[in-house]
Amino acid sequence: MAQTCRITDLRCKEVINLCDGTRLGYVGDVELDLVCGNVTALVVPGRCRFFGLFGTREDIVIPWPCIDKIGDDIILVRLERPVPHCERRCWWRFGK
Fold this sequence. Notes:
disordered C terminus; four-stranded mixed beta sheet; globular
């Protein structure tokens, strides 16, 4: 029996890197391959700098092959070095 998971369910899960034990944050978005209909990556929003006054750090993109396990509360990934997203998330686009 195949298990299913919605994108909204993924947003409630914390992402932890198994390589160094760091907490990367919570899933903010997913990247999809619209031709094949597959999820290609999870995107974790960058953390705020100094109470949000100086913007945020770049988003972390986690390619699907780097995901080790998706549990009830957490997602375990293996990233040697977190990959920042090429496009910075601006405060006026946050939440879209």
